[in-house]
Design a protein that fits this description.
The protein has one domain. The chain is 68% helix and 0% strand. It is built from three helices and no strands.
């Protein structure tokens, strides 16, 4: 649980850091919002796949944002 809260604090710190480029903020914000309020591309009543797409899309957006983050930030 500590690791999850530490990562959320890290992502929020990046989101509100003025040195973070706007496109990284956008991807990071979309990823965090999607994890909190997922729009379903595959409905949740489909076993397993309904939940996997929510986690996968959110994680991919956050991962892309971290890769695009400049080294100095």
């Amino acid at each position: 649980m500590r690791m999850i809260t530490a990562r959320i604090r890290y992502y929020l710190g990046l989101l509100f850091n003025r040195q973070t480029p706007w496109y990284v903020r956008l991807l990071l914000g979309l990823g965090l919002i999607y994890l909190i309020i997922p729009m379903d591309f595959i409905p949740d009543y489909v076993p397993v796949l309904g939940l996997v797409d929510d986690v996968t899309i959110g994680a991919m957006l956050i991962s892309l944002a971290i890769r695009l983050l400049p080294k100095q930030v």
